[in-house]
Amino acid sequence: MSEQPKNAIIVGAGLVGSLWAVYLSKAGYKVRIYESRRDLRKTDISAGKSINLALSVRGWKAFKNVGVEKEVEKIAIPMYGRTMHDTEGNLTYQPYGKEGEAIYSVSRAGINCTMMDIAEKYGDAEIFYNEQCIDADLDKGIVHLKNRETGVESTVEADLVFGCDGAFSSVRYNAMQKTNLFNFSQQFIEDGYKEILLPANPDGSYKLDINTLHIWPRGRFMLIALPNEDGSFTCTLFMPHKGEQSFEHLKTEEEVDKFFKEVFPDFDALMPEVEDYWDQHPLSSLCIMRCYPWTIGKFALLGDSAHATVPFYGQGMNSGFEDCTVMWELMQQHRDPNVPCSEDWPTIFEKYQQQRKPDGDAIQDLSLHNYYVMRDYVADPEFLLQKKFEGRVSQLYPERYIPLYSQVSFSHIRYSEALRKGMEQDKRVKELMKEHDFTKRFEDGTIDELIHEVIDHLIVE
Amino acid sequence: MSEQPKNAIIVGAGLVGSLWAVYLSKAGYKVRIYESRRDLRKTDISAGKSINLALSVRGWKAFKNVGVEKEVEKIAIPMYGRTMHDTEGNLTYQPYGKEGEAIYSVSRAGINCTMMDIAEKYGDAEIFYNEQCIDADLDKGIVHLKNRETGVESTVEADLVFGCDGAFSSVRYNAMQKTNLFNFSQQFIEDGYKEILLPANPDGSYKLDINTLHIWPRGRFMLIALPNEDGSFTCTLFMPHKGEQSFEHLKTEEEVDKFFKEVFPDFDALMPEVEDYWDQHPLSSLCIMRCYPWTIGKFALLGDSAHATVPFYGQGMNSGFEDCTVMWELMQQHRDPNVPCSEDWPTIFEKYQQQRKPDGDAIQDLSLHNYYVMRDYVADPEFLLQKKFEGRVSQLYPERYIPLYSQVSFSHIRYSEALRKGMEQDKRVKELMKEHDFTKRFEDGTIDELIHEVIDHLIVE
């Protein structure tokens, strides 16, 4: 038993790689992390391509498994619902879940630095920077590296290698993708995004309500704003790259100024000089990456490298963290608990990818679906009425009926299950809306009666 | 006008790259070709992963455009139809098109060598071997190369660069795929293939009819055989990699022997020692590659690098050659005919990809569709009756009604048009088959009457 694997390499010191180091370390493995960028904590790297991230229960669970949740709580701001802003400046609020349920805003730079601290403090991991994976021998556990500063090439080897190097994963591009029978697709959506920082008031206070995610839905495009700890909001405009209403037509300061005044007047009032800051952040693209297998030889992909998605369900990071939970649970099942590092990795890898791939696909489908919801329906009275109805059903039957958004954001139900059930629930509620006047039922107080009548039909098994 | 581009680089001395060199050379460009393999003509490279190829009118047209068809005619064997072999050894023959219409069997090694000869003789191209493209600067027309024998890296530059380097294109993998907004997918199908060479008789004669493509369709798998010049046939077994009836269960000589005796008895009688040759060729995989854009900066993809498909319509090579025709026709439209090398390449590239991408997608869809046809329906009496009916319609109305297979294999109709029309025709004929007894109509001689009655409905505009 002394020949058991004890060394692990993680490619990428991002969110998932940093957390996974803690898991491996706690299981007895010696962990080295190779990161292609510089140490984010020591250099002022622009957070240009960062959308704020929304942490939800799947992420928290992955932290709690290894006892690091306290470190992240320090930098997270709860958001209990969405606040929609219409063109008149009217606000509509919609809670995300039941009372007390929230998703948590974290800045990408903030959580990235925190996670690296955690990897070093709790994971005892050594992180090597500027080391780009240029090739790999998947069966032997060998990674070929090239230092981006010195140009020096080197080779490192371990019993296990985890590719946690993001949507544009070098492990996947430079090694896995070139193997036989490896299926892969990268599909950019027609929309891009641009970040705008809405600063705090001079006294440090917030310019908008803090504990909510703000949305300015405008059909083919939308603006969102998530709170930061320092009183500012990170705002993101999503719209098509090309076409009639698109970033193509937002090139000059005049165009930007006119656009914000016309379509986001209340935002413009908070930040009349928005056009001056337009070029501070680049125009970025959004891509869905699908691949299979997720494991080959001694290598496994976790997080975005396996299933990068568009950000519209706020689950990209959470799904990556949940990969850690899934792999860890499989580790418990396939080892001798009395022998450190006795995990049966071939079995774990195979079960991991078979079990988790449908969930990776599902969160991508859900993310695309929610894009249309946020863009097109979130301000629609019919949609809001449906959500109100579903909220009431869930209040009356909290154990039996969970709305789709809550399944994804406030439960640990598999994404593939949530997708299947959620779509079927949606269909059944819509059918019910055709037969019954929900507005009237809410007004005359007979909505609960209706719900008790139809509840069995609404439950999707 | 003396500043016009005059240099072109082609990456890949395969079929399309070699032919494209002739086009460019005739238009006045100085052409260099960089090929990652050794010179096929000087080394004995196993034709292991080669299926024989079927040349049809789209390919011939591309040769005729630049007057090189005579060179290829020397190595091509016409096949006028398919001969189906059932498990009892019974044969059914089905012509591919009208009398005299044929597709032409060429061996991959044979045509590859011929095409390189053509590139040098007619295209005045210089071919550099063992030069692997490892990176590129798409906007500047720079290709970074690494010699696979010496390891020496170098950089070459041209006004135009064409990536004709096949399904696993280095230009696409190592440069294009890493650019923003580049969509890409590689999808392996669940079937693989293995080649078997059925030798000639001792006196050099053929063991099967020569001017036909032989198929042993067996539902979930099939064997095909195409004639070679030397009396042999190149045979290919297509079947799933894994599962009940799959290559997994054809590992030992006993398994192979038993399998051929049971399911291909007439083939086994011709080659009773088939199991001895089983391991002469590797088990290969089949993949569909889709991407967009096909052109970036000074680079364009032609052939498999842009739209590799599975081989079941025999159009992979033909569609690549047709890319040359399309690009060449656009060159005629966007140049000053009195000035050599005056082509407006940005316009040509944009029109090329916009026009040709739907056809690349369509031939991939058609190839997959024909896989099911060849595997599942080619021996089905209903299918054969439908083909017989369509053949008769096309005899009576040759100008108005062209069966799908003929549109693809014997016409220059765009693949996307053929796909659309063919699917609609198929639907309409199937509807007609439900209402009328074709067998009886053929027997009592009233089939023509029926055709005249319904012809207007059968024509898809």
Weakly predicted, low-confidence segments of chain A:
none
Mean pLDDT of chain A: 93
Q: Indicate the CATH topology of the domain at 7-45 and 107-186 and 286-371 in chain A.
A: FAD/NAD(P)-binding domain
Shape of chain A: globular
Strand content of chain A: 15-25%
Which chains share the greatest interface? A-B, 15 and 15 residues
CATH uppermost class of the domain at 7-45 and 107-186 and 286-371 in chain A = Alpha Beta
Structure description:
The structure is a homodimer of 461-residue chains. Chain A has a seven-stranded mixed β-sheet. A six-stranded mixed β-sheet of chain A has the order 8-2-1-12-19-18. Chain A has a three-stranded antiparallel β-sheet with strand order 3-7-4. Chain A has helices at 15-26, 57-65, 69-73, 108-121, 170-174, 253-263, 265-270, 304-307, 316-333, 345-377, 381-396, 404-409, 415-435, 438-443, 447-458, and strands spanning 7-11, 30-34, 53-55, 77-79, 81-85, 91-95, 103-106, 126-128, 131-137, 142-147, 153-157, 160-163, 183-198, 213-217, 222-227, 233-240, 284-292, 295-296, 299-301. Chain A is an alpha/beta fold. Among the domains of chain A are: 7-45 and 107-186 and 286-371, FAD/NAD(P)-binding domain, CATH 3.50.50.60; 380-458, no CATH class. The interface between A and B is medium-sized, with 15 and 15 residues. Strand 13 of chain A pairs antiparallel with strand 13 (183-198) of chain B.
